[in-house]
Amino acid sequence: MTSTAFYPIGTPGQAWGAAERAQWLASQRRQRSYADDVLSRIDGLRERFDVQQYGELDYAPERFPLYAIRSRGWRDDLPTVLVTGGVHGYETSGVHGALQFVDRHAADYEGRVNLLVAPCVSPWAYERIHRWNPGALDPNRSFREGSPAPESAALMALVAPLLGRFLVHIDLHETTDSDESEFRPALAARDGKPFEPGEIPDGFYLVDDTDNPQPAFQQAVIAAVERVTHIAPADARGEIIGSPVVAHGVIHYPMRKLGLCAGITGARYTTTTEVYPDSPRATPEQCNAAQAAAVCAAIDFALAV
């Protein structure tokens, strides 16, 4: 079914131009603080971990430094694990789950893996509780050569010297009710396409890579998270967000083809987590804990193989 509801910016059937993008940008409001919520927590980790600034976003009059947290005992003979959060800035548990993992669990892997954690890839969007950057671009469709999204380009530059050494990359996301009420309608309007309503799954699920499926790895992560929060069931069509469910709580996307963050390392084990924070059956604390549990399970599985 195609909805006749119309997003309030643009003309139906016409992709946005500069004027519509400027109108959209003018409507965005800062709702929380990257400095207070994220940078202060990173500062609190400096005694135990190395912190690297890997870029800065210049969105005049604002500037946002980009930081990654690294294992202090980095060793070239160890495999490397990348954890990313906040690629979509509004997906709160991705950011705070990554920070919780570092604070509570990262020490368990000292001397076993090198950890590289970028907890908030899109700080401007974090503050606006939005999916896009100021150019109305989705960073998680922009991880490709010559990326137009500086958030994506900066992260790719960070990992480039380490390519070939990654064992695991886990990218922490959420699927929210606002995906259906705001972000997908905005996407349809931006691209001049009709909005086709979908269904938000109630629960946690994973996105595996179509071109590098790792079913046992995905199920190990699902099993760990299931001890923290519930797993999303398939809908009446046997799908989650329009993709066939291939195993309990798992769907497939072609990571590199779509320009997704989880496709940037070439790691053997990759996944994108999707937490549902709007569920009446989950608290913010559970959502953060589910993300941290997913990271631990991903590393544990990879090291045990």
From TrEMBL:
GO molecular function: hydrolase activity, acting on ester bonds; metallocarboxypeptidase activity; zinc ion binding
Ranges of residues in domain Peptidase M14: 30-305
Protein name (Swiss-Prot/TrEMBL): Peptidase
Cited Gene3D superfamilies: Zn peptidases (3.40.630.10)
Keywords: Hydrolase, Metal-binding, Zinc
Family as reported in the entry's similarity comment: Belongs to the peptidase M14 family.
GO biological process: proteolysis
CDD domains recorded: M14_REP34-like (cd06231)
Swiss-Prot/TrEMBL cofactor(s): Zn(2+)
Coiled coil recorded as keyword: no
